[in-house]
Amino acid sequence: MTIRHTTHALRRSAPALAGLWLGAMMIASGQAQALTPVEVAGNAERANVPDGATLDKQVALRAPRLISFGPEDEMFIGSQAGRLYRLQPPYDRVDAEIPLSGYPHSAVVHEGYLYVATTDQLYRTRYTPGQDVTEADFESIADLPGGSGHASRSLSVGPDGRLYVALGLQGNCSAQRISEDVAFEDRRGGVMALDPTHETPEWTPYVSGLRNPIGMAWSPEGTLYLNNNGPDHWGYEAPPEVLVRAESGSFHGMPWYQWNEGEWQRDECIDSASPGGRHTLTPPVATFAARSAPIGLTFLPDDNPWQVDMVTAIHGSWATQASGGRATRRPPKIVGIRLEDDGHQGQVVDLVSGFQAENGERWARPAGIAYREGALYFTADDGDTGLYRLTP
User: Fold this and answer.
1) I need a labelling partner for 137 at 20 to 30 A (CA). Which of 63, 98, 260, 269 fits?
2) Where are the chain's structural domains?
3) What are phi and psi of 185, to 5 degrees?
4) Which of 116, 292, 326 is nearest to 212 (CA)?
5) Which residues contact 217 (CB under 8 A, 6 or more apart)?
6) Digit-coded pLDDT (tens) for 276-294
């Protein structure tokens, strides 16, 4: 990964950074670059893309979510439709459609196993590329805290070979967190890790203090970055959604604190004492407008044609301003993040827009994101649903 330093790179502790962050965030939030309108191959829509790029719909899918790659470049896509999809290069048709109950949001292949995370279970089956798989082949190897509220469970393989799962809080102000001293069913609002080689795999806490961290991505240096969908009880404009750098054991404030207007602010919706004070909280790497709903997140290699370090799918809000109607919904888009200051700050740039018309009607809402050989792939789980490809 190429970290793009500025002449005023900040190298300070978390408390010192907080005092200087507002100016940096004005740079980092929502900057746009010139995009060119194009017709989307495979449907009758239009979108705005970097000059010279093309966008095409690869294949129709029902409510597809996160994307991952397995051996021999197989692509796996979870869904809200009780299906796990497998596609082979060039990813223009479904090679296998595996029925799975319990919301199979994401899947990974690791050390000869195919793992799938549902709302309340981690499943696996032995797997080789191209293998026929049915629901009966999967065994449950670990429970997950289930329940109502944010039901997606994002799954990732860490550089240490462990499996990592992200879980959202049940609501805006749920007193839940990832910690050994919390009842298992309330270990939500962060990330847990599991060593699948143990005879009885068990989850251990990794990071906490996030309302709904869906997007997960590991830097080449082995650091976890997380998208977070913020609460909606502060109105339509605040607090912003955040991208955080998640170190082992880090606490990111929520629901006790929200990052807003360049500082950590106490959220009075919860009366209990915060497990960590304001001075322990690290500012986010970047922010997105409130109600943007960032989902999929991925790192790109240094030689990528998009000249960014990371890419995320902005799902766009379902909510609107009180009197504005659908036209005020946050628009879906694909954005890139250029990291600076050794990965502690990021500048956000638009890569694909035009999914939402001025009246608020949408033809797609991006969800999952992935990169392969110069091309960006993303899923749309609403509107004209399926897999799309942005080619330079």
Assistant:
1) 63
2) 32-58+293-391
3) -65, -15
4) 292
5) 156, 224, 225, 297, 298, 299, 310
6) 999 999 999 999 999 999 9
